[in-house]
Amino acid sequence: MMPSSSGGSWKSSGAGAGDGGVPDQFPAGLRVLVVDDDPTCLMILEKMLRHCNYEVTKCNRAEVALSFLRENKNGFDVVISDVHMPDMDGFKLLEHIGLEMDLPVIMMSADDSKSVVMKGVTHGACDYLIKPVRIEALRNIWQHVVRKRKHEWKDFEPSASADEQKPPEEPDYSSSANEGHNWKSTKRRKDEEDEADERDDPSSLKKPRVVWSVELHQQFVAAVNQLGIDKAVPKKILERMNVPGLTRENVASHLQTFLPHNSKNLVQKYRLYLRRLSGSPLPGGMNVGFMGGPDAGYGSMSSLNGLDLQALSASGQLGQLPPQSLATLQAVALGRSNNSKSAIHVPVIDQRNIFSVENPKSRYSEVQSQHLNNSSKQINLLPGIPTNMEPKHFVSLQQSGQHSFGSMNHQILIQMGGQSQSQTQSQNQVQSNTNAHHGLRQPVLSNDMLTRGGVVDVSTSVYNPVVSVSQASSLVDFSMNHKTDSSGSSYPLGGSLGIPNVRATSSALQGDGNLDTKVSGRRIVPSYDVFNDLNQNREWGLQDVGLTFDQSPHLIQVGLDASSPLLLQHNHSSVSEMGGQNRNLASGKVIFSPGVEARTHHNGSNVGQQRNTYVKPESDTDGSFHNTLYSELYGQDDLLVAIMKQQQQGVGQPENEFGFDGYALDDLPV
Amino acid sequence: MERNQMHRQIANTRKLMFDQGYLDEQFIQLEELQDGSNPNFVEEVVTLYYRDSARFLSNLDQALEKRPLDFSKLDNLMHQFKGSSTSIGAKKVKTECTHFRNYCNARNAEGCKRTFQNVKKEYTTLRKKLEAYFQMSRQVGPVETAYASSVVVCTIRYDTIHSLHLNIIHSNLPLRRCAARSH
Questions:
Q1: Contact B37 A135 (CB under 8 A)
Q2: Cα A362 vs. chain centroid, distance in angstroms?
Q3: Which domain of life is it from (chain A) (predicted)?
Q4: What was the pLDDT predicted at A268?
Q5: How many other CB atoms are found less than 10 A from the CB of residue A380?
């Protein structure tokens, strides 16, 4: 170690290394943030770290440290923090960092009691140093950085294999999910590989993006379920998931996606909703998990769904590989809970939108599932919904084993239908709207919804989109046209629908088909944005919704409907708009609603959703459906929120408008 | 020569602090961090320590005046003070701090008060010694100080080649270095 004659000299090299400039000098230039309220210790540590040729930033307040980290997201490689600090407990800081940045954190303290050290371990500290810290101990901290990066990278690559290894809870879905997943995994892997080069250089210390495949999401949801929404902190979730390469930050950001409002109620509702959606037909952890009980929290569900959707969208392929995406979506929706597969390896970036849509959908799923459960038979009304995922549309799906999905959807639909109906009545409040929609929609939309991606973040401001969606729906014309009889199949948007479309929702709406254009014309696009804004993490964007619409007009509509209810939450006014439309849709468009749900699909609700939309492609209602769908789509998160709000606020209006009450499953049979 | 004498004196003073248990290994760590770019690093750290830790002592004084004693608060304060003291290698101070905390845990007010007096005593004693030591070192100059340190290291830590080695490298002394190292 050369004595650092001047901080600058190694700093520059360090900086280079940090930025991937001078790899061979690693670990020189490792960017360390050291936090300690004791100025003496801080001074000594800084000097020691400098002597290790690290780049040191010191601060004596945890808050300051956090702001440093937030401002320079990639500005640090490792954090060293004292345990006892006056303004914030070191472990709390540790959690924050893990949640937000997922950097390796090393704790230190003069306290060497086992309990404290254990606390460090359980909170996710990479290491625990006993004060006084020797320079030798600091010299090796780079190993934690490398290790963490290594794990992150690992997560990206063999996703397929990892997913396959996971025993699918639902045999039916597993196959499809697997396939979908595989497809996604491949894609993801490829993406990863691109990044791998960069990552190979430890000094670059780049963090690969995590694609939340269906499997992964299911795992996530399962973990959240196990922990209980209250205790579902990223660290614990990560531990339970036990996915190599997955970082706490990944989990944290993913978790945030589903809990935008951090509302326990919302989560619960969502979960309940999803649970209902999944209903009995959907066995599987997720479903069960969610079904766990209203209190289970939507978190898991939503997250699941969201994840799935995201995954789907991430696969981005949605646009490109509609079938697959759909399949994935379906898989996600249907078997998220069941399948631990991370079918959706959709690149997160674009697919964000999709996810958003999905997320809302997932919410819906939950809700819908409830509905579904209530009136399972209702779903039956929907003809061939399960198969609606028509091969054509769900080409990909089929590949991936759509069948399972289809059935799933069907099931979901049924569930949803039932539930939605019952729910609509009972839940005038938001839920009803959303539920109703969801219920119906989910099954049908499941796939579509998925494709739409959770972008529909209905909750955020979905309303707009919803409205537009409805319009779009008209465009889409519930596509029953598109789809053959099975509205569900219309979802086949899925082929391309789903996700890719969704993403494009904003754009897709415009483009894909009539729906697209219309949709785009609608505010949907903007709404997506709104949603996006709402769901910071989720970039579902309405785009997804739009996408779905393209393919299956129904879907869009459904989405709208679905979303409408959700939207209602947020924008009652808009909801009302949609509601009206939705209502129509609801009745006729039941399909959509479920479809919407389908998105959220948590459990194959997508299937149902799709069908729903399919079932009722009424022109006028179509619009509403669209709205509904969008609403559902948009806000999976929104959905949840909407639901929650509705419940809380007793949003009766949307319901009425949507006529879920009315159309609940009754209309399904079409 | 005067210079050599000076050096020897410094070295001895330093050695004495170690031998008498006022300083421990951690102090050497600080010394090893001292180099050309920061020739007075150890002194700076110690100065910072005394300046910062004074507040702990005054807080502890106040807390010990209260009736009844808030042992957890006392323990908390002492923990921080102890951490600081440990970081500069103030061995005796650290020991007394440990005693204090033990009495705190045992909720022994008398023991706490008594021990605290010891803490303050050791704290003050060490300060005087270090002040003298630094003053001497400054007179000899930075490089010389390093040399003196290395010599001392040579003498004291003959069993720790590593430290010696490092010290010698830091000092940048040619012949002596080798000689010392051969130990």
A1: no
A2: 9
A3: Eukaryota
A4: 58
A5: 18
Cis-peptide into A383, omega within 30 deg: no
pLDDT in tens, A555-588: 333 333 433 443 333 444 443 344 334 444 334 3
**Residue A454 φ/ψ, nearest 5 degrees:** -75, 5
Q: What angle do CA A654, A576, A563 make, to 5 degrees?
A: 65
- Outline where A537-670 has alpha helix (H): 541-551, 553-570, 572-589, 592-600, 605-615, 619-634, 636-645, 652-658, 660-663
The reported pLDDT for the residue numbered A215 is: 75
Q: Nearest residue of A to residue B81 by CA position? A: A38
The first and second tokens of residue A46, run together, are 């800084």
Minimum distance, in Å, between the CA of residue A49 and any CA atom of chain B: 10
CA distance A340 to A165: 9
B161-171 helix and B25-33 helix, angle to the nearest 10 degrees? 30
- Measured over the CA atoms of residue A141, residue A147, residue A153 and residue A156, the dihedral's sign is negative
> Measured between alpha carbons, how far is A229 from A478 in angstroms, rounded to an integer?
37
- Interchain CB distance below 8 Å, A44 and B87: yes
Helices (H), A228-347: 234-241, 248-258, 264-278, 285-291, 298-314, 317-320, 322-335
ipTM above 0.90, yes or no: no
The percentage of residues in chain A with a pLDDT greater than 90, rounded to a whole number, is 7
Query: Cα(A486)–Cα(B50) distance, rounded to whole angstroms?
Result: 81
- Please write down the HEC assignment for all residues of B78-103: HHHHHHHHHHHCEHHHHHHHHHHHHH
What tokens appear for A226 in the block? 């196990």
Contacts of A448 (CB under 8 A, 6+ apart): A326, A329, A490, A491, A493, A494, A497, A498, A548, A551, A552, A554, A555, A556, A558, A559, A595, A598, A599, A606, A609, A610, A613, A629, A633
> A70 at the B interface (CB within 8 A)?
no
Say whether pLDDT at A286 is over 90: no
Smallest CA-to-CA distance from A583 within A549, A547, A628, A516 is with A628
Contact assignment for A135 to B26 by CB distance below 8 Å: no
| CA atoms of B38 and B36, how far apart (whole Å) | 5
Better-predicted residue by pLDDT, A272 or B52:
B52
Find the closest chain A residue to B76 by CA distance: A84
Length of chain A: 670
A357-398 confidence digits (pLDDT tens): 444 444 444 444 444 444 444 434 444 444 444 444 444 434
Type of residue numbered B98: T
Mean pLDDT of A408-437: 40
Q: Does A113 touch chain B (CB under 8 A)?
A: no
Q: Write down the pLDDT at residue A638.
A: 52
